[in-house]
UniProtKB/TrEMBL annotation:
Family: Belongs to the YjdM family.
Protein's recorded name: Alkylphosphonate utilization protein
Any Pfam family hit: YjdM
Organism: Arsukibacterium ikkense
Domain of life according to the entry: Bacteria
Residues in Protein YjdM N-terminal domain copies: 3-32
Coiled coil residues, start to end: none
Domain (Protein YjdM C-terminal) ranges: 44-111
Phylogenetic classification of the source organism: Bacteria, Pseudomonadati, Pseudomonadota, Gammaproteobacteria, Chromatiales
Length: 113
């Protein structure tokens, strides 16, 4: 049995492999098996040019219509613990009152903590 490396983000020893990815169950960080580098794209930026990372908190900068619904995500809605993904809608998140959703980074602003 091979020993998996510790999480590069939180240094947890409880990592597990899922296909080509290594995943940390404690912080949710994912990275590839082959090169041990993070899978998230370091070039994903918010509307103000701040670099976004997994786990960041952002706010919505304009009212966004929810596709397939008459609901609207209002300006100023705070979204916690985002997850960066590849594609046009590059943020996966859960929004209170709406559930799981994908957002474009151009419509959010990072909350400075």
């Amino acid at each position: 049995m091979t020993t998996l490396p510790a999480c590069p983000k939180c240094h947890s020893a409880y990592t597990y492999q899922d296909g080509a990815l290594l995943i940390c169950p404690e912080c949710g960080h994912e990275w590839t098996v082959n090169d041990n580098t993070p899978t998230e794209n370091a070039n994903i930026r918010d509307s103000a040019g701040n670099i976004l990372q997994d786990g960041d908190t952002v706010t919505v900068i304009k009212d966004l219509k929810v596709k397939g619904s008459s609901s609207v995500v209002k300006i100023g809605t705070k979204v916690k613990n985002i997850r960066l993904v590849e594609g046009d809608h590059d943020i996966d998140c859960k929004i209170d009152g709406f559930g799981a959703m994908s957002l474009k980074s151009e419509f959010v602003k990072k909350v400075q903590e």
